[in-house]
Amino acid sequence: MDVVVVGAGSLGSLLGGLLARAHDVTLVGRAPHVERVRERGLRVTGTVETTVFPDARTAVPASADLALVTVKAYDTGAAAAALAETALDAVCSLQNGLGNERTLADALDAAVLAGTCTYGARLVAPGEVACTGVGEVVLGAREGGPSETADRVGRAFADADLVTSVAEDMPRRLWEKLAVNAGINAPTALARIHNGALLDDEAGTVMRTATREVAAAARSEGFDLSDDTAVRAVESVASATADNRSSMLQDVEKSRRTEVDSINGVVAGPDAPVNSTLTALLRAWEREQGLRE
Ligand code: KPL
Question: How far is CA 157 from the centre of its chain?
């Protein structure tokens, strides 16, 4: 399969690197990372060790079988615009937040899949990405239900030894992922702590309450996500990724804009006071850094 990864940051580079073991991969990202990959290949270190030689560039190619979109949620519109001239069979969003698939589907003439990914990734240096934990990719039709495209993409991922499964309930899973990200990302970013520190009593209360508020919002939209399921999911991710720094903490440490609008901001309002507080604090930090109006 011919795969273009749009957003060769940490997760995009890791997935692209692993897929390059079995497929033709093009990484689209920023210099100097893509230059280094073009010159010397991509080193994957950590839990999985390999060096692969994908194509790497700053602009999308003219065609591909699959576009894997791993850009930050606030860049989805730009990724969709960049892909508008690319001939594609399928697009798969592996991003944080809700609504990315809709943005892609509105702009592109290709089957759009939704996915979640629990592989841990960290960009160590230009040309090198660390796999900080083997997880799982789950993908499926963005509206839910069976999808031949999802089956085909799932098989292609499995051919590259990525732990992958195909699911028919992606909309509910995206809400569950949102509940997990809402509980972990903003609290770790604001307190500058590893994910595992949220398992302590005080911080754990913030994590669990933010997660419960998202579960309630999911139920109000008709999705079957109980408080217990959401809290068990967030506790299990915080514990499995205890030594990791969340993507939002990494953004804050690099003084980059965060995805708070697409995570906690999605449910912020009178019924979600903890998510509203987390959103307000991160937006205030972004403003002070000159990252937003
Ligand atoms: O997806 C993540 C992120 O950091 O964005 C979690 C699951 C919270 C792992 O750190």
Answer: 16
Here the ipTM equals 0.95
| Pair 138, 154: CB distance under 8 Å | no
Strand partners, 102: none
| Exposure of 131 in the CB half-sphere (CA atoms within 13 A) | 23
Return the CATH architecture of domain 171-288.
Orthogonal Bundle (1.10)
Dist. CA 266–CA 56, nearest whole Å:
34
Ligand 1 atom 1 nearest Cα: 181
Q: Which residue owns the Cα nearest ligand 1 atom 4?
A: 246
Atom of ligand 1 lying closest to residue 195 CA: 10
User: What is the distance between the alpha carbons of residues 54 and 157, in angstroms, rounded to a whole number?
Assistant: 16
Give the model confidence (pLDDT) of 76-130 as tens digits.
Answer: 999 999 999 999 999 999 999 999 999 999 999 999 999 999 998 989 999 999 9
Pinpoint the residues of the chain covered by CATH 3.40.50.720. Answer: 2-168
Give the model confidence (pLDDT) of 177-222 as tens digits.
999 999 999 999 999 999 999 998 899 999 999 999 999 999 999 9
| pLDDT value of residue 28 | 98
Residue 195, ligand 1, Cβ within 6 A: yes
Please list the residue range(s) of the chain that carry CATH number 1.10.1040.10.
Answer: 171-288
Q: Which CATH superfamily hosts domain 2-168?
A: NAD(P)-binding Rossmann-like Domain (3.40.50.720)
72, 198, 237, 282: residue to mutate for ligand 1 pocket, most atoms within 8 A of CB? 237
Report pTM. Answer: 0.94
Ligand 1 mean position, distance from CA 119 (Å) = 9
Is the C-beta atom of 181 inside 6 A of ligand 1? yes
